[in-house]
Amino acid sequence: MWADNETSDDLLGFKVHADLIVDVINDNDVLPVTIGVFGDWGSGKSSILKIVEKELIGDGEDGFNDGTLVLYFNGWVFEGYDDAKAALLESIIEKFAKHKKLGSKVKDETIKLLKSVKWMRLMGLGFKKIAVPAATAYLTGGVSLIPYLLNEFSKIEPTELANKLKGDEAENFLSSIIKKNEDDEITMVREFRDDFKKMLDKSKIEKLVVIIDDLDRCTPDRLIENLEAIKLFLNVDKTAFVIGADPRIVRHAIELRYKTDGIENSPDIESRNERIVSDYLEKLIQVPYYLPKLTDNEVETYLSLLFCQKELGSDFNKVLDAFYLSRENNRYGVFGLGDMESILESNEKDKLTKSVSIIASLAPIITEGLKGNPRQIKRFLNTYSLRDRLVRVAKISDFKMDILAKLMVLEYSSQSLFRQIYEWQSSQKGEPAEIIDLELLVSENKVKEIKDKYTSAWGTDKVLRWLNSEPKLTNVDLRDYYWITRDQLTTSISGSSLISPHIRSLIKKLIEPVSGTALTRTVTNEIKDKLSEGDYETLISLLEKELTKAPEKTEIHQAFIELIAGNCPNIIEAYKRTIKKVDNNKIPFNLHNDYKLVESRNPEIKTLYKIFTKESQIYKAINNDK
């Protein structure tokens, strides 16, 4: 099995990207700078950031080397704080305060800066947790407060002040006091930046590099707070910030915070929102760097290296060194078993040959099915490896792992089609006639006939290549293969852990109670023609799962209806498929009004009316309208 952790071991050939980022950081003329390492969920951002950290630190200790201090943070750790902005600032200052070499040099500055952060938290929304206890301490003779608050409190008669602080309106009272002097916040930012710069100068470091990973796992508010902390308080001379995130999540967070709301969903308002998001992102991230997806050759190389890592243990380092050397001369070709011939022992070759050859032969469709995503690939292999063990434990004879691998590619890349084959084979003793027909049609290049006879989903380029790839499934008894994967047939095929944060956020937006215009905007602006084929397939599969669990929830049905109204691909088939599986008596009967409203935009919705069970209220409501 392979751990799903970031690593500084470069199995992806990504060092070239890390070297580019390091080169930008080392250019003093561009500092201060904020670099965004952008890529989809699981694309290898974290590993690149780890390589950047390793390159900058080298043989240094405590993150310090050749005058450069490198601080590494996971953005997710700030999620639980009342003020993520203050939490980030406090964490950076504490790193300085506790640093073995630098702490004593900047003791006074760190103390002052930490006090400033506490004032920021007081000015934030945490009044109940921070300001009220502090004010109570003042009234009872406790430690002194910030002079500004003391001055304001002194103007109020003590008994009246005590009542205000004890009442339900204590938070509003304190908030109004702070807002009397709104210039304080501007002054605070300026003074903090000056003090932060003094701390850097006094520490004698040449450069501060702050790396923040997993920012896209934070809630939108926390994400924005972290970005604003960098821009407002820390972006001073000799600093570089490197942020790893999914750009779609970042843009969504900015849109939620700063979008322009309008009564109508007009193109002008949408265009203005888009400009606001783009302008804001450009101000926060000066250097955006988008990671490319892996090519077929890179996927095959990655697969080979992963199996070597698993089988060779500590001896894997010799393969890794050979890979790095090979990449200096050939960055485009496959690094496979042939390239390891001279460094592997005969028993090591025997261990690797079967596994690597099976997976490598499927590299092109794995690349396309999993979108060249390293995390998806690694988890695909973990599931493959686990099922390989199950085959051996269950003592299943005549089981071909290359057939399992091929089916798993479809399982991960097109879940609805994977289930379709399951349904076919379960009623035909494991050998579906439809597969024989499909493989024959694709060999004769009869794509239109495939789409007409089955569905358009079977006629996509991706699925056609899958059908045409070896090994063929004609006359293969698929029962054992589906028995091995049966744990996945009643749940999300790829498991919730394989779903990107972006798709999770879209699902949440689709099925939570919202206004009709908000639902329409989500479908129009974020789903239709905006998602990759794989992400769209995952989204629809998750919607099916949600409806299967709760067919009584109107909001889930309305999400399907809005997608149908938007003429999104394969959505009616998915909705029908789910309707057939659930108890139709639980479906809200008043949905028939929603169906009727959509008929003019997508008449195909009428084909839905025939599949409801006749005793259900929804069937009766539809037929009473006729």
Mean pLDDT over all positions: 79
Tally of discrete structural domains? 4
Largest sheet, described in full?
6 strands, mixed
What value does the Rg take, in angstroms? 29 Å
Q: Strands of the biggest beta sheet: in what spatial order?
A: 2-3-4-5-1-6
Bin the helical content: 55-70%
Pfam family, one: KAP_NTPase
InterPro entries: KAP_P-loop (IPR011646), NTPase_KAP_P-loop (IPR052754), P-loop_NTPase (IPR027417)
Domain KAP NTPase: 15-390
Protein name: P-loop NTPase fold protein
Task: Put the structure in a nutshell.
The chain has about 625 residues and is mostly helical.
What does this structure look like?
It comes from Flavobacterium flavipigmentatum. This is P-loop NTPase fold protein. Pfam families: KAP_NTPase. It contains 31 helices and 6 strands. The chain has 626 residues and is mostly helical. The chain has a 6-stranded mixed beta sheet, sandwiched between helices. The two termini are 58 Å apart. About 6% of the residues have low confidence.
Which descriptors apply to this entry?
31 helices; mainly alpha; Rossmann fold; 626 residues; 5% strand; 6-stranded mixed beta sheet; P-loop_NTPase
